[in-house]
Specification:
678 residues; 9% helix; 44-stranded mixed beta sheet; 61% strand; mainly beta; single chain
Length: 678
C-alpha cells in the first residue's frame, strides 16, 4: 500500500530512546514524496546507547520523479543522524554521500521534523536546495546554485526527448506544485551560463549560450505546456541549415508551447526582440518529428546590417554569398500551412545589398515583393542603380504578379549596362517548398536580350586583355535550378572585326566554391593582326576561324575543351606572319622552323608569307593532344609557308602538359622566347 515518506521518518525516529541502544529497520514496498515515488525502500537506523549521533541508511531499488523525468536505480544514502532541539522543537539532521547505479558521488543533507523538510544536494561544483512546508504540502521549492546543466537533463527530456545537455551551469529558483488530482507545475526563474546542447542527429545544436529566463511548465496527461520568457546573451545556435551567432547584448524572447496527443507541438506565441536588427512575432505548429507544419510570422528590421552575420550565414555560405552586406530596413510576413509556403510579403525600405568581393551591388531598393500560392497578387519594387563585378548599371523598376506558387514579370524591364542595354523580356520564379515541386529549391526562368554591350569595358573591368567590340544576342531561355544556370539559344560577340558565337552556356555554383562554366564557341573571320596585337603575340595578318567545343572552366581555369583554329584566305587580306610571331608559335607548339634559308639568314627578314595556319588541342586530364594543318607520326604542321623565303613551323610533340603550355603562352606574350631552326 503506498505510503507518505514524511510521516514515516519522524515515526521511525520517535522509536529511538536516547538512553538505550536501539536498531530499527523498516521495509516499505512503495513510498510517495511530493516530487517522486520510491519502490522497495529499506530504512535502517542504528543508535548506540548514550551516543550523541546515530547512523541512518536509506536504500531504494527505484526512485521515479514521474513527470519531471528523473529516474534513479539502486539508490544508497548513508549519514550520521543528529537530534536538534531548538525552543522545544525537535528536528533531525543527516548529511552524507548518496550514490546510485551510475556511480555518481553526490552529497545529500536532510533536515526534517513531522511538519517540514529541508534538503541540499551538492556535487560537481553546484548545489540544489529543496524545501517543503506543512502549511503548503503540495508545494516544493528548489534553489539552484551553479548546478551543472546535465542535472536538468531528465526535466528537459520530458518536454524535448532528443535534447542532450553537454555543458553549462544553472542558477535559479523553482517552485514545484503537485496538488492532488491536478497536473504537476514547475515555475520560476533560471540563469543559464555557457549552455551547450545537441540532438543525436546533429540537426540542432547550441554552444556558449547565456540566458535569463522565466518559465512556467505544466505537465498534464494531455501533454506538456510551457511558457518561456527572458533574454539571451550571446552563443551560437544551429537549426538544420540555419546558423545563429548571437551578440552579447540582450535579445528578448517569448515562447508558448503546447504538447499534443500525437506528439506534436502548437506554438501559440513566438516573439524575438534583437533591437533594430530583427523583431519577430508569430505562431506555429510542429509535427512529432520536429517538422514545421504551420507558421505565421511577422518580421521587422530597421537596421539590417547585422542580419547576415547573426542569422543568415548558414544559408549564405553554401550559396557562395558569405560576404553579403545589407544596409537599410524591411518588413516581412509569411504564412506556411502543411509545410508549404502559402503567402509571403517583403516590403523594402531603402535597402542596399552588396558583396564583400564586389561581385554585385544593388542600391536603395524600395517597394514590395509579394508571393501567393493561391490567388493572384501584384507588387512592384525598384532600385536606383548598382554594379556587377564593378561594372555599373542604372535604375530599374519591376512589376510582378504571383499566383499558384509562382512569380512572374508583368512587363519587360530594360537597364543600361556597359554602354548598351540588357533587357529582361520574361521572368518566372518558383520558390522552394511549393507542393507542386515537392520541395525543390529555388527555380528561375527568364528571357534575355543583349544589345551592344561594350566588350572593351567588360575586358577592363575583368582585367582581361584590351579586347574591343560589341556583344549582342537574344537568349530565349535562361534557367536557374539546383545552383546552376543554363542558357538556351546563343550570344554573338563582334570581336576583332569578326564574330564569336557562344552556345550551350551553363554555369554551376555561380557564386559558390569553384564555379564551373561550360560552353561551345565558334570563331568567324577574326582579324589576326588586331588579335595578336592585343595579346603581344608578334604580328599575323589574316583571318582566323575555328571552334572551341566542350569548353569547361573550373574556378575560371580550363580543364577540358576541343579546340581547332585555322586561317582562311579572304579577298583583300594579306597573309603574312612576323618573325616574332613565328618564334612565339614555335615555342608554344614545341615546334621548330623549317626554312629554305641556311643558318641565321632568316634573321634578315621581318615577316614571311604563309599559305595557312592551323593548330588544335584536345585537353583532357591536364594533357593537350595537339595537331595542325596536317600530321605525320608525331609531327604536325602549324604554319604552311608560301613564297620566298619559305618558312614552315612544325611541331614535334603532340602530347603537351597543359600547365607547361600555359607557361609557354605567357612567355610568348612577354617576348621571352628563342627560335629553334632546322
Amino acid at each position: 500500500m503506498p505510503r507518505r515518506l514524511l510521516p514515516i521518518l519522524p515515526l521511525l525516529l520517535a522509536c529511538v530512546p536516547l538512553a538505550q541502544a536501539r536498531t530499527v529497520a523498516a521495509r516499505i514496498a512503495h513510498v510517495d514524496t511530493p516530487v517522486a515515488a520510491m519502490t522497495q525502500v529499506r530504512l535502517a537506523l542504528d543508535w548506540p546507547a548514550d551516543a550523541p549521533n546515530g547512523r541512518l541508511r536509506l536504500r531504494a531499488a527505484d526512485v521515479d520523479a514521474g513527470a519531471l523525468g528523473w529516474r534513479l536505480r539502486d539508490v544508497d544514502w548513508q549519514c550520521p543522524l543528529k537530534r536538534l532541539v531548538n525552543e522545544g522543537r525537535v528536528r533531525w539532521h543527516c548529511e552524507g554521500p548518496i550514490r546510485d547505479r551510475s556511480g555518481a558521488a553526490l552529497r545529500l543533507a536532510l533536515e526534517l521534523d513531522a511538519q517540514d523538510i529541508d534538503a541540499r544536494l551538492a556535487g560537481e561544483g553546484g548545489a540544489l536546495t529543496l524545501a517543503r512546508r506543512a502549511v503548503t504540502p503540495e508545494r516544493t521549492t528548489i534553489d539552484l546554485e551553479r548546478v551543472p546543466a546535465a542535472w536538468a537533463q531528465a526535466l528537459v527530456h520530458s518536454a524535448w526527448e532528443a535534447a542532450q545537455l553537454r555543458k553549462g551551469r544553472l542558477d535559479g529558483a523553482l517552485r514545484i506544485d503537485a496538488p492532488d488530482a491536478q497536473p504537476l507545475r514547475v515555475a520560476g526563474t533560471l540563469a543559464v551560463h555557457g549552455l551547450a546542447l545537441e540532438t543525436p542527429d546533429g540537426a540542432i545544436a547550441a554552444e556558449g549560450v547565456d540566458a535569463d529566463l522565466r518559465l512556467d511548465l505544466r505537465l498534464p496527461d494531455a501533454g506538456p505546456a510551457l511558457r518561456l520568457d527572458g533574454t539571451l546573451h550571446g552563443g551560437e545556435w544551429l537549426f538544420g541549415a540555419a546558423y545563429l551567432a548571437l551578440p552579447p547584448t540582450p535579445i528578448g524572447i517569448g515562447l508558448d508551447l503546447q504538447g499534443k496527443a500525437d506528439g506534436g507541438w502548437d506554438l501559440p506565441r513566438l516573439s524575438w526582440r534583437d533591437g533594430d536588427t530583427l523583431q519577430l512575432d508569430g505562431t506555429g505548429a510542429l509535427s512529432a518529428d520536429g517538422t514545421l507544419q504551420a507558421l505565421s510570422l511577422d518580421a521587422t528590421s530597421r537596421d539590417a546590417h547585422a542580419l547576415p552575420a547573426r542569422y543568415l550565414s548558414g544559408w549564405l555560405g553554401p550559396a557562395g554569398l558569405s560576404g553579403l552586406s545589407l544596409q537599410g530596413g524591411f518588413d516581412a510576413s509569411l504564412a506556411l500551412a502543411g509545410g508549404v509556403l502559402r503567402t509571403a510579403d517583403l516590403r523594402l525600405r531603402g535597402l542596399d545589398v552588396g558583396d564583400a568581393q564586389a561581385r554585385f551591388r544593388f542600391d536603395h531598393m524600395d517597394g514590395a515583393l509579394r508571393y501567393s500560392a493561391t490567388t493572384p497578387v501584384h507588387s512592384t519594387f525598384a532600385w536606383r542603380g548598382g554594379a556587377l563585378y564593378g561594372m555599373p548599371f542604372d535604375a530599374a523598376a519591376w512589376s510582378l504578379e504571383s499566383a499558384g506558387g509562382r512569380m512572374r514579370l508583368r512587363e519587360p524591364v530594360a537597364l543600361s549596362f556597359l554602354g548598351g542595354e540588357i533587357g529582361f523580356e520574361a521572368l518566372a520564379l518558383q520558390l522552394p517548398g511549393h507542393a507542386e515541386r515537392d520541395g525543390d529549391g529555388l527555380r528561375m526562368r527568364t528571357a534575355l536580350r543583349l544589345d551592344g554591350l561594350d566588350i572593351g569595358r567588360l575586358a577592363q573591368a575583368l582585367a582581361w586583355p584590351a579586347f574591343e567590340g560589341r556583344l549582342s544576342g537574344h537568349i530565349p531561355t535562361v534557367r536557374y535550378a539546383d545552383n546552376r544556370i543554363d542558357f538556351d539559344g546563343g550570344m554573338a560577340m563582334q570581336l576583332f572585326d569578326g564574330r564569336v558565337d557562344v552556345s550551350s552556356l551553363s554555369i554551376e555554383r555561380p557564386f559558390g566554391v569553384a564555379p564551373t562554366v561550360t560552353s561551345d564557341l565558334a570563331l568567324q573571320g577574326l582579324d589576326l593582326q588586331a588579335l595578336t596585337g592585343v595579346f603581344g603575340f608578334g604580328s599575323i595578318e589574316g583571318r582566323l576561324h575555328g571552334r572551341i567545343d566542350g569548353l569547361r572552366l573550373v574556378d575560371w581555369g580550363a580543364t577540358a575543351f576541343d579546340a581547332e583554329l585555322h586561317t582562311e584566305r579572304t579577298p583583300g587580306v594579306r597573309q603574312r606572319i612576323s618573325q616574332r610571331a613565328v618564334q612565339d608559335i614555335s615555342s608554344v607548339g614545341d615546334a621548330s622552323f623549317v626554312t629554305s634559308l641556311q643558318g641565321k639568314a632568316i634573321a634578315l627578314f621581318d615577316d614571311f608569307g604563309y599559305r595557312g595556319i592551323g593548330i588544335s588541342c584536345r585537353l583532357r586530364n591536364q594533357v593537350c593532344r595537339m595537331a595542325g594543318l596536317h600530321s605525320a607520326g608525331n609531327a604536325f604542321t602549324i604554319v604552311d609557308g608560301a613564297g620566298l623565303p619559305r618558312l614552315d613551323v612544325v611541331g614535334h610533340n603532340r602530347d603537351v602538359d597543359w600547365p607547361t603550355l600555359v607557361e609557354r603562352l605567357a612567355a610568348a606574350a612577354g617576348g621571352d622566347v628563342a627560335p629553334v631552326i632546322d
